[in-house]
Amino acid sequence: MNYEEIKRRVSAWGTQFEFSTADRAAIEQMYFDVLGKHIRNCNCPDRYRDAVIELRIFTKNHLTMEKAKYVLKAGVVIQPSGTSEVYTNDNLTDAVAEQFLKERPGARGLFEVIPNTAAEEKGPENEKEAANSADIDALRAENESLKAELAKMTEYRNRAVADLDALVKKIEESNIVLEPREPEKTAEEESDDANKGEQEPAGDKKTAANGLNPEIYAAIKARLEAGDTKSAIVADYVGMEVDGKALTKYGVEKYFTAIKAENPAE
């Protein structure tokens, strides 16, 4: 994006009081491309407006200068030693480019145009060294970008885990049991269930009517009466194969619900 386009868009944003989702994405991208950093990550209502103000100040101070004779390759960003300033073709000056190459001669490969440099001044070995240095610089830049993305993803993950832990704790403290909605049975399935019920021992009908295994029901009930926590019981029973199916967390919680219904005073 050239200077005129940056100036036009920043000027247009400066007249807006609200920004659409597309505007916010464009502001974030331009902020990174021009200033070499991300907009601060917070819930501040004015953070996009503040970013536009920073861009307007930067364009006023840095992008009105004479076009540099040095030209970087497309997408290349350089940062001279001892400074936090970053440069692209939009704000690069000859003085900055010359000082950068003086400090890092091997970075010539980052430039598309280097004025007053005859091809014969660089031998085959120097060209190879410059190419290798450019590759290394590009890899370093990519590595820094990946590290920043990883840090952001780690932050989002930690936040999601914390929210999930808080939700689980709240559910456990309030004794809420989340039961998945079972699909409606066909007439044939209902008939099969009725036949199975007729074949079960009379003493197990109450438990079998809930679709629960009587042995597991009795074992879990005994553990609850002994003082075991629900979370410990869930950890022990999840994954256990019962009646040909592996128990899930919701499946174990059905036993808790049935036991509580049988003993409402507890």
Question: What's this model, at a glance?
Answer:
The chain is mainly alpha-helical and 266 residues long.
Number of strands: 4
Report the sheet-strand fraction. under 5%
Overall mean pLDDT = 80
Percent in helix: 55-70%
Biggest sheet record = 2 strands, antiparallel
The tally of domains stands at 2
Order of helices and strands: HHHEHEHHHHHEEH
Strand arrangement, major sheet: 1-2
Tell me the distance between the termini.
Answer: 70 Å
Broad shape: elongated
Structural class: mainly alpha
Number of helices: 10
Low-confidence stretches: 200-208
**Gyration radius, in Å:** 34 Å
| Assembly type | single chain
Blueprint of the fold:
Blueprint (H helix, E strand, L loop, with lengths): L2 H11 L7 H15 L11 H16 L8 E2 L21 H10 L7 E3 L10 H51 L12 H13 L5 H5 L4 H12 L4 H8 L3 E2 L2 E2 L2 H14 L4
Antiparallel strand pairs: 1-2, 3-4
Helix pairs in contact: 1-3, 2-3, 9-10
Summarize the structure in words.
The protein is mostly helical and 266 residues long. It folds into two domains: 161 residues, no CATH class; 76 residues, no CATH class. Helices cover 58% and strands 3% of the residues. It contains ten helices and four strands; from the N terminus they run H-H-H-E-H-E-H-H-H-H-H-E-E-H. The strands form two sheets. Strands 1-2 form a two-stranded antiparallel sheet. Strand 3 and strand 4 form a beta hairpin. Helix 1 runs antiparallel to helix 3 and helix 9 packs across helix 10. The longest helix has 51 residues. The termini are far apart. About 3% of the residues have low confidence.
